């Protein structure tokens, strides 16, 4: 953790990412056109707080609040306000097709149509939508809708109150990652694969805008458990093998075992890509890997081999001024900070 001298008369934005295996905070200093890393912190819980069946955080609200309080007390953050990320797996999202109509008619039509795709009463969710110009024409509109249960919103509001932090807004993680990794002026069709601990989020960005996103119910913890079972080793040893040898491993068929689990994720990602093309989109030209799993040795090369598409490991700090003494450390950890950075970049 880094504690620089606080600068006055500057705009500080704080992003809070409460993930399934860790909590990350990133504070950026917005100084005109320059954006600087002001501070960051991360919390990894003790094994007692990890659910053995899912491999994810098993913390009560007050425990998350306590972890955040400790992070704030140990690190000098300048902002009393924050933007918080919402997990994709806690939301409902779909791409809706509607006949072309006026903006006023569109708003009413979406309010009616979205009820068909949400498995709970509309009164129990908060939903938003955006018209996808890249897939719309004079005859039909394509609209991306996102709904989040009220109980999820209330949960994070309670935690924020416990920590005494003012949440300016909440945002689905997909949009945060896209903001951190893809320029709004980009004309490419880019896919982001966020290999998290519990799940993998697949999103497609065209013209700098999120067009489609899909949550795959498989992630790094599932890969680790599969490797442990296949090699008859404990989870700690399997995690070590995955992180140090990965897909590049040559011994004991480690590579083959890992690919077997990774392929299930990539097959679902391929289906998302095909659905995008069927909706009128163009071929993916670049894939960005993010999340903690992105650093698995050989993973990027394997994804490139499978899809025959340029593939890179995410660096959300690429366009941010980072103190020289932190550059090497953050390069090793940066894929896992995409959501927190994207939240702190939100204006």
From TrEMBL:
<dbReference type="InterPro" id="IPR005883">
    <property type="entry name" value="PilM"/>
</dbReference>
<protein>
    <recommendedName>
        <fullName>SHS2 domain-containing protein</fullName>
    </recommendedName>
</protein>
<dbReference type="InterPro" id="IPR043129">
    <property type="entry name" value="ATPase_NBD"/>
</dbReference>
<dbReference type="Pfam" id="PF11104">
    <property type="entry name" value="PilM_2"/>
</dbReference>
<dbReference type="InterPro" id="IPR050696">
    <property type="entry name" value="FtsA/MreB"/>
</dbReference>
